[in-house]
Amino acid sequence: MDNNEIITGLALELRRGTLVLLTLSQLKKPMYGYNLVKSLEDANISVEANTLYPLMRRLESQGLLSSEWDTDGSKPRKYYILTQDGKKVLEKSEKIWFDLTNKVNSILEADNNEGQ
User: Fold this and answer.
1) Which distant-in-sequence residues (6+ apart) come within 8 Å of 20 by Cβ?
2) Where are the beta strands (DSSP E) in the chain?
3) Tens digits of per-residue pLDDT, 32-51?
4) Helix 49-61 to helix 3-26 angle, to the nearest 10 degrees?
5) I need a surface site. Which of 3, 32, 65, 76 has the fewest CB within 10 A?
6) How many CB atoms neighbour CB 42 within 10 A?
7) Which residues contact 24 (CB under 8 A, 6 or more apart)?
8) How far is CA 56 from the centre of its chain?
9) What is the pTM of this model?
10) What's the CA gap between 111 and 99, in Å, rounded?
């Protein structure tokens, strides 16, 4: 297998794992799908709408998000926001993320320092 394929696959797995966390973190205030895509792009994280919409529907079915249609504008938009359960999951997930990334960074930095 080509190394580029391995790296691409690894990057895809890492992105999938963090997309839920990023989505939850951005939905502390109501947002519609395209707005969320743009918010992530502004942070240099590109995500396809056809990836994000099914994810938001899944998170809603899990009770982590709620949604409401706004039909007052020129076109109807479905806004998503964290539920109380979503806030709890986000808080715990953030702690796990920071703990894990600190440990991973420590290992990788030690490995890099040994190689110098």
Assistant:
1) 55, 59, 93
2) 31-32, 65-70, 77-82
3) 999 999 999 999 999 998 99
4) 50
5) 3
6) 8
7) 59, 64, 65, 82, 86, 89, 90, 93
8) 10
9) 0.86
10) 19
Please list the residues that pair with 68 across neighbouring strands. Answer: 79
Cα atoms found within 13 Å of the Cα of residue 71, Cβ hemisphere only: 1
Confidence at residue 115, expressed as pLDDT on a 0 to 100 scale: 63
How many CA atoms, within 13 angstroms, populate the side-chain half-sphere of residue 87?
6
- CB-CB contact of 70 with 79 (8 Å): yes
Residue recorded with tokens 């009770």: 63
pLDDT tens track for 52-92: 999 999 999 999 999 999 998 889 999 999 999 999 999 99
